[in-house]
Amino acid sequence: MKIVTKISEIKEIISNFKKNKKEINLIPTMGNIHPGHLSLLSEANKFDGINIVSIFVNPAQFNDVDDFNNYPNTFEVDMELLSKTNCKIIFVPSKEAIYPEGIKSEKTVFKYRGILCDLFRLGHFDGVTTIVKILLDLIQPSKLFFGEKDFQQLKIIEQLIFQNNLKINLIKCPSIRDSNGMSLSSRYSTFSKDEKLKFEKCAKIINSNVLNMKKNFNLNIFQSIEKELRTFGISKIDYIEVRNEEDLNFSIINERSRLFIAFYINKVRVIDNFLLY
Ligand code: AMP
Question: How confident is the model over 72-113, as pLDDT tens digits?
């Protein structure tokens, strides 16, 4: 496993792979590697090709400076975990390498916008599409692996690939969940003991309501989740919505639908989505 930080070096490596007709699987991450990230690598192993994991905490996608500054950095442990996988290259560029002219982002994808996280994290998805396009141009993968945990992100990346006419196969990977039923996330590694307990309780509320909704679709269930979370002391809830997974429009049926939720436990934003079929 090789750790690459320089743009010139990754360009040379990619050019050699291309000369040798090697296919590339790219797994972009922001580090603090957990089993969710590792599942993307396992998915990549099902295909031919060289696995490249990128680790870059992209300043352009953080709309909150504290969130950026507090983002967990566990580089040594990440390397240890990745060294046990079939990851050949870890690309860990500096922000100066990625943004030589200063941090900036551009709005290029307009589909799937103005809803869900885009309403609450202004500019976030512009930062995401900007960095993903930079990585795609540099690494030229034939397969790109993204998690369904960040479902709106996945749809926006799909659109980015489509708009740019890229010959990239986007592989959508299911969420890896904790025993409490919630998707794993790097952000939760900063939970205090109290916050963890709160999270467990929220997980119970959400999962039991999702179960009810699967059995008997009922729009009152949103109110029930919201009421139970608020009663329990969760005051900041960005959204609880059911949407169709094809077009992200509102849905009033279980079929092809997911419950999307985003709320805060103190400063940590929890986002998740749950299949309703
Ligand atoms: P992040 O490092 O949080 O930006 O995530 C990097 C990639 O891993 C994204 O495609 C995420 O959707 C995916 N990912 C994060 N958490 C999980 C999870 N619990 N299960 C599956 N994929 C995940």
Answer: 999 999 999 999 999 999 999 999 999 999 999 999 999 999
Known active-site residue 124: no
Tokens matching residue 257? 């639908």
Q: What is the pTM of this model?
A: 0.97
> In CATH, what number is assigned to the domain containing residue 59?
3.40.50.620
Give one DSSP letter per residue of 172-219, joined into a string.
EEPPPB-TTSPBP-GGGGG--HHHHHHHHHHHHHHHHHHHHHHHS--T
Pocket test for ligand 1, best of 33, 39, 40 (most atoms within 8 A of CB): 40
DSSP 250: B
Q: Specify the ligand 1 atom closest to the Cα of 174.
A: 21
Question: Structural domain of residue 221, as residue ranges?
Answer: 186-275
Looking at 144, 173, 202, the residue that finishes a domain is 173
**Residue 88, burial from CB neighbour count under 10 angstroms (0-12, 13-18, 19+):** middle
